[in-house]
Write a structure and sequence with these properties.
By secondary structure, the protein is α+β, with helices and mostly antiparallel strands. It is built from ten helices and 18 strands. The longest helix has about 35 residues.
């Protein structure tokens, strides 16, 4: 049926279907993998600790308000990442301890997991509800707050740009898309709005010697706390948290050592959680839970709603699931067999004339729709065909295709790929109806946090992309030599 010298570049042409899924990260087969993940999480924690200490030094050395606001935001974001990573590490330790104690019935087995995907939130709009006397008549003291959003899915945490808000604005706007690259279909995207009153005074009076002692003591205390948490978790116990705040999954992780750093303080103003059911290829309005009262200095008159666009791209819609040489016929022409190179991707089984056509982006010879209504089954060995075959039936078009592979192993690999693909689509639901578009963040630009009054367009901070080593730099004034020295020392020690 196929020439012996013909080769296939199938994802799992020679390996088992199970090996394919292991490579794609859908099965966890051993505790050794957990140990490797432990090391990676600990490395991430150590990196965030260094960032945290460097930010504390920068915050204490800031002589300008805009610098201090950005540094304080970075410190809060780093603290959140450390807490999320410590929670994940504790869970992993507890799971390993339970597995070693024989509390898992699936010891050494495998579990089918859905693929992960990208989740992007963009064009966040939070309307404000100023009093008539404040907005229209421009009366009363000009109350200004620095605000930003903290966005979290699991241990992946991002912060938006900083925006200065006063009564001249009708909406708080965060235009730049924030992308989470490895989210499961059961993701819980927590959106937290933080606010800080910019009129509040803050001190910048730490000496360099005191800063050095603060960083060293903090690092030692933190790593000791981390080792204690890991030790307790390895014995299946839970470390009790001694302070307030939330953590992923409602766990009780250890508290971060408190740092007595003077500077602007951000407070949680409102929050909400978005899940798969909120994903839609259009803008939607979501309710916000307001966390404080009008008496607070950082208060802003929120309507209690947030508008944004939340989209997702599961891997099963963007990556090739499996590919290889096939022989296909349609029931409308049972004698017309066609040798093709098939690629299962998204909602299609694309059939090319040859393998090279996939690289040259040529149009497939024909395409078989693969969706939630498609039925795929492996038939018994057909005496006429002398091999086992796969039938693909689409309920809407009522067309059945018969598919032959080169070997029984390839047939099993294709069937496993189909089963996994249908499972992925069932978990990601509406995200697999069509490929949603995700806009990548724009190139990094020099931005300015401005205290100047004006319209919405003037007050809105220009978008920025992923963090770089300059994300702690002041935004609209020259950097002092003292801060340059601190940053240089910090990055040389950290990277």
């Amino acid at each position: 049926m196929f020439g012996r010298n013909q080769t296939s570049r199938a994802t799992v042409a020679r390996g088992s279907a199970m090996e394919m899924e292991v490579k794609r990260g859908r099965f966890r087969l051993s505790v050794l993998e957990d140990s490797a993940q432990d090391c990676e999480v600990q490395r991430q924690i150590e990196r965030e600790v260094r960032i945290r200490e460097g930010t504390c030094k920068l915050l204490a050395a800031c002589s300008q308000r805009e610098q201090a606001l950005e540094a304080s935001k970075t410190l809060l974001t780093s603290n959140s990442r450390i807490l999320a990573l410590m929670t994940q590490l504790q869970r992993m330790k507890e799971a390993q301890a339970m597995q070693r104690a024989g509390r898992r019935s699936s010891d050494g087995g495998s579990e089918r997991l859905p693929c992960t995907g990208k989740v992007a939130i963009s064009d966040i709009r939070i309307p404000l509800m100023w009093k008539d006397s404040e907005y229209f008549k421009n009366k009363g003291e000009l109350h200004q707050c620095a605000v930003f959003c903290l966005l979290q899915v699991g241990t992946e945490i991002h912060g938006t740009d900083l925006v200065i808000v006063d009564r001249t604005l009708t909406d708080i706007c965060f235009n730049e898309p924030v992308i989470f690259t490895d989210a499961p279909p059961g993701f819980d995207l927590r959106v937290e709005l933080y606010s800080c009153c910019v009129e509040e005074e803050f001190s910048v009076g730490f000496s360099t010697r005191r800063l050095s002692r603060l960083g060293s003591a903090s690092s030692k205390k933190f790593m000791a706390t981390l080792e204690t948490a890991a030790s307790c978790s390895s014995h299946g116990s839970r470390t009790v948290r001694t302070g307030g705040g939330s953590s992923p999954g409602g766990e009780s992780p250890v508290l971060l050592p408190a740092l007595s750093v003077r500077g602007p303080k951000y407070h949680l103003l409102a929050h909400t959680s978005l899940t798969l059911c909120h994903v839609q290829n259009s803008f939607r309005t979501h309710d916000l839970t307001i966390s404080d009262t009008e008496d607070s200095s950082f208060w802003l008159p929120l309507y209690g709603n947030m508008c944004c666009q939340l989209v997702a791209q599961p891997l099963c819609m963007t990556q090739d699931v499996i590919c290889g040489k096939l022989r296909i016929r349609s029931e409308t022409n049972p004698g017309d067999w066609r040798d093709v190179y098939g690629v299962l991707n998204g909602s299609d089984l694309k059939c090319y004339q040859q393998q090279d056509d996939t690289d040259s982006l040529k149009t497939p010879v024909f395409t078989i729709p693969i969706n939630k209504e498609t039925r795929v089954r492996a038939t018994e060995r057909d005496p006429a065909l002398h091999t086992q075959s796969i039938t693909i039936t689409n309920h809407g078009k009522k067309t059945t295709y018969t598919v032959l592979t080169r070997t029984p192993e390839d047939t099993r690999s294709w069937m496993e790929a189909f089963w996994q693909h249908f499972y992925d689509m069932s978990q990601w639901k509406q995200c697999c109806d069509e490929l949603m578009k995700i806009e990548e963040p724009s190139a990094k630009k020099t931005v300015a946090v401005t205290l100047k009054q004006g319209s919405l367009d003037h007050e809105m901070v220009m978008p920025s992309s992923t963090p770089t080593r300059n994300h702690l730099l002041p935004l609209n004034r020259p950097v002092s030599s003292e801060i340059q020295s601190l940053l240089s020392t910090y990055y040389n020690d950290s990277y």
